[in-house]
Amino acid sequence: MKTVFVLLDSLNRNAMESYGSTEVHTPNFARFSQRAVTFDNHYVGSLPCIPARRDLHTGRINFLHRSWGPLEPFDDSFPELLKQSGTYSHIATDHHHYFADGGATYHQRYSSWDLVRGQAIDRWKAHVDPDLGALKQDFHPLQHHRANYMINRSYVTDELEYCGPQVFGLAQEFLKQNYKDDNWLLQLECFDPHEPFHAPPRFREMYPTDYDGPILDWPIYKRVTETPEEIAEIRANYAALTTMCDEYFGKLLDFFDENDMWKDTCLVLTTDHGFLLGEHDWWSKNRMPVYDEIAHIPLMIYHPEFSNQGGTRRKALTQSIDIMPTLLDLHDKEIPEDVLGRSLLPLLEHDHDIREAVIFGYFGAACNITDGRYVYYRYPERLTADGLYEYTLMPTRMTSRFSIKELADATLANPFNFSKGVPLLKLKPRTNEVGDTIEVQGMNFEDTQTRLYDLWADPKQTSPINDPKVEARLVATMIDLMHEADAPAELFDRFDLTHNEAFDV
What we know:
CATH class of the largest domain: Alpha Beta
Low-confidence stretches: 499-505
CATH topology of the largest domain: Alkaline Phosphatase, subunit A
Largest sheet: 8 strands, mixed
Structural class: alpha/beta
Shape: globular
Strand content: 15-25%
Number of strands: 18
Oligomer: single chain
Number of helices: 14
CATH superfamily of the largest domain: Alkaline Phosphatase, subunit A
Number of domains: 2
Radius of gyration: 22 Å
């Protein structure tokens, strides 16, 4: 078997024609949906970027035990399992987080890798004393703190110098060299359309606005305070970058067409999470409740053996942790016992339920659950670090190591059912000056009320509902799923969860 796994970052299903968008031009995603099986109820697991990738690699939920961090020594990683069993695995990416402290163990799991430099705030070009004053003249004040991005962008003058096109180009190089061979997996991972929303001019011109100001393509993770013109500009920049991703994805489809790869090659397209573009009066992710725009993500799968299912859709509830066992199953590899995800290959043949619900969230924030109709956000009464711990053998976060002070207070915890008999360091999470838990990127959570929504009646989540029976059912299922994931005992107290509560209605 041969597989191309396309992972885009922050790809909103609401921006894709294949999921009903009429505002963003994405004909090639729609083109692929005519060959693929499209999943309509696919959800995230752990958030944000690297925690999501740990889920993708391992087929397990990790936000209950850990914030942003590397693959652990006990983690099963799908490209490494493929590599160990004789299937070649390669990744082409511009995702600079892989080369930060908190992502450093991911790319080495593959047989080989390509890295495109210069994306976002990647520390790419060496400027000892840059003229920040001159750089800032071209950018909105909201972006003046992103010096590395301003420097990187000054080196991009041609469309083929943009990171996304380079990644797709490297993937095509791999295919030209290897498509006639068998038994390989290519992961084409593009940071786009993650912010900054910097697209080549011909794509940006497709989405005119009335904004007349300096570059504004990177919203701050905060509540919306911008003018209507600024909001429109940010959204237009996101649309332009999404259309660029779509066009280059179309070039990949062209290669499949020209080389008759549809007869023997699988193609999978998904993302790590969505993105808020002003919905619910928020930008981006991380701080607010995990609204459907963030949690409900696209997934399309093509398999030559199920080509007769092209253009069909599936209503089954699926999750990011299902990708890992699916990729192993595609290559006839054994799925490890501690994997919680389910292979989606049976769903390619026909639609059927594979689970009752899924849980998802950020470390230290709410535990969230959906059954596909209802979604429930359960926050602790207080978001302080009391009773909250991180479990790890790799004490690094996004861009830094754990401090000596943090490590000095560490204790040794008994193994979890997924740690292969190995005890783990147990550490308190990072806090601010008043003891509140700090999210992995240094931002506190907001809008932390426990809520229940009916997504069928209220898909935009404008009005929480009060339904004790539904809440009790979801709480009972949340408890079961937390036990299945071997959640630390203290989390049940943190969320005030007991089995008895589930039936007190």
